[in-house]
Write a structure and sequence with these properties.
By secondary structure, the protein is an alpha/beta fold. It has helices at 9-37, 46-70, 122-127, and strands at 5-7, 72-74, 88-93, 99-105, 116-118, 135-140, 143-153. Helix 1 (9-37) runs antiparallel to helix 2. The longest helix has 29 residues, at 9-37.
C-alpha cells in the first residue's frame, strides 16, 4: 500500500526549488571530486574522501526529495472556515491566555519556529476540521491542554 504525504502547494514548490538548487550545485561537486582525484594516492587523500562523500550526500538528498514529490498529495484549501492544510489559524491557550498563529502544513514542511505546524502533530490533529470559536483539547506527551480557535484565515 502506498502512503501519500499531504502537503501544501507551497511545500511542493519548496521541495522542487531545493532539488533545482542541488542539481545546479552538482557540476561543481563533480569538478571538486575530479580535482581531488588528480592529487594522487587515494588511500590518504582526505580531499578525495570529502569530495566523494559530499557528492554522495547531494545525490542521496536529490533521490530522497524526488521520492517525496512522487508520493506527495497536494491539498488545495477550501473556503469553508475550517482548519485544514494551507490555512493559518490563530489560537489562544486557555491556561495563560497567550495567542499564537500557525500555518497548518504537511509533515515535510514542518517548521514550528517559522510559524508552521504539521497537521499530524498532537496540536495539528486536535485543530483539524474545527472552526473559529471551537475549544479543543490537545492530547500531548507532556499532558493535555485546551486551546480555543480565534480565527481561521483562508
Amino acid at each position: 500500500m502506498v502512503y501519500f504525504q499531504k502537503m501544501t502547494p507551497e511545500g511542493y514548490k519548496q521541495i522542487e526549488d531545493e532539488i533545482a538548487a542541488l542539481k545546479a550545485d552538482r557540476p561543481r561537486r563533480v569538478q571538486n571530486l575530479k580535482e581531488a582525484r588528480a592529487l594522487g594516492d587515494l588511500s590518504e587523500n582526505t580531499e578525495y574522501s570529502t569530495a566523494k562523500r559530499e557528492l554522495r550526500h547531494l545525490d542521496s538528498r536529490v533521490r530522497y526529495l524526488n521520492k517525496q514529490l512522487k508520493y506527495a498529495e497536494v491539498i488545495q484549501t477550501e473556503k469553508d472556515g475550517k482548519v485544514n492544510l494551507g490555512k493559518t489559524v490563530t489560537i489562544r491557550y486557555e491556561e495563560d491566555g497567550e495567542e499564537e498563529s500557525y500555518k497548518i502544513v504537511g509533515r515535510m514542511e514542518e517548521a514550528v519556529l517559522d510559524g508552521k505546524l504539521p497537521f499530524d502533530c498532537p496540536m495539528g490533529r486536535a485543530l483539524m476540521h474545527h472552526k473559529a470559536g471551537d475549544t479543543v483539547t490537545v492530547e500531548a506527551p507532556i499532558g493535555n491542554y485546551k486551546i480555543t480557535i480565534i480565527d481561521v484565515d483562508e
